[in-house]
């Protein structure tokens, strides 16, 4: 893979390729993986390798080679979906961090991860910025920023890469045509208390920039900030009214990554496919709909027609740095 950019001795972190979006469900990992393949056309990835000449576990023999980490007490499956890598996490120990996360927040997106060139320097810069480090996995070569120091967003840094990454010309196994055609991940939504504050934190830590043009709810219902974080879009939503569909999420679960929005070429066609799949729809807006998590293995998903998504990244301008 092309090496991530060199990290100077100052923030923001210089991000390489997006490493994965982690998902957790209260259904068994193989069941989630099979659903993602059947419904969304997920294709298995072969696993990871160390960017530099460091020790790293041998490739997993699992068909989707995430493998099992004794240090993190978690099992993972790696998949390529709609142009991005995903990981499905399952706890192997009821006291593990993944098990704790599921009890506290419920099913849904768990964390983002990016590859960086110099993991040691990134860790030291974050510590100097009073960002706590958690979830360190030495064999897995990764650690997380504590979400209380990153606006409620759980972010992992790693110096490993995907062995068969299609972005580097890798070839993935063929799978059957999916039941629902998805073209890309339009955005991943995080529910927060103050979207502008969290945007400032992420700008300071990662260089994230605000973008405009995507559909959103009225400002009197919820504050919405869309951030381009290197190569993915993160949507920050702060409910301002009980009319916000996210108000109950914040009240019950607190700040967290909450849902994935899939881009589809034909929303009406997707809705017809939902009927055949037994996927319920709980809300609709022009060009968008929200499926019932109870019918998607507990995972909150939003769906939007490609035609209503902002073409490219229309930057709003630099965000103010947060002290």
Automatic annotation (TrEMBL):
Which part of the chain is the VOC domain? 184-311
Q: Domain of life here?
A: Bacteria
Q: Which InterPro entries match?
A: Glyas_Bleomycin-R_OHBP_Dase, VOC_core
Q: Which GO terms describe its molecular function?
A: dioxygenase activity
Its keywords, alphabetically, are: Dioxygenase, Oxidoreductase
Please state what the protein is called: Glyoxalase/bleomycin resistance protein/dioxygenase superfamily protein
Q: Write down the species.
A: Pseudonocardia kunmingensis
The beginning of the lineage is: Bacteria, Bacillati, Actinomycetota, Actinomycetes, Pseudonocardiales
């Amino acid at each position: 893979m092309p090496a991530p950019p060199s990290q100077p001795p100052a923030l923001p972190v210089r991000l390489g390729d997006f490493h994965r979006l982690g998902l957790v469900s209260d259904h068994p990992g193989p069941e989630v993986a099979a659903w993602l393949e059947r419904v969304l056309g997920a294709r298995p990835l072969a696993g990871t390798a160390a960017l530099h000449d460091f020790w790293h576990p041998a490739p997993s023999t699992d068909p989707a080679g995430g493998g099992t980490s004794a240090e993190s007490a978690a099992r993972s499956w790696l998949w390529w979906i709609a142009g991005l890598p995903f990981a499905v996490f399952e706890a192997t120990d009821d006291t593990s961090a993944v098990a704790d996360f599921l009890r506290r927040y419920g099913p849904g997106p768990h964390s983002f991860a990016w590859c960086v060139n110099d993991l040691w320097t990134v860790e030291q810069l974050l510590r100097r910025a009073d960002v706590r480090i958690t979830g360190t996995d030495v064999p897995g070569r990764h650690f997380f920023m504590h979400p209380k120091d990153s606006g409620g967003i759980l972010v992992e840094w790693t110096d490993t890469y995907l062995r068969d990454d299609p972005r580097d010309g890798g070839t993935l196994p063929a799978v059957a045509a999916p039941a629902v055609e998805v073209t890309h991940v339009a955005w991943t939504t995080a529910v927060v208390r103050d979207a502008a504050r969290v945007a400032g934190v992420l700008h300071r830590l990662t260089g994230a920039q605000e973008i405009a043009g995507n559909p959103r709810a009225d400002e009197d219902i919820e504050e919405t900030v869309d951030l381009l974080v290197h190569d993915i879009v993160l949507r920050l939503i702060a409910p301002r009214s009980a009319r916000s569909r996210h108000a109950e999420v914040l009240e019950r679960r607190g700040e967290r990554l909450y849902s994935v929005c899939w881009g589809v070429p034909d929303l009406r066609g997707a809705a017809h496919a939902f009927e055949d799949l037994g996927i319920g729809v709980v809300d609709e807006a022009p060009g968008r709909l929200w499926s019932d998590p109870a019918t998607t293995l507990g995972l909150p998903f939003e769906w939007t027609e490609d035609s209503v998504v902002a073409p490219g990244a229309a930057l709003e301008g630099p965000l103010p740095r947060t002290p």
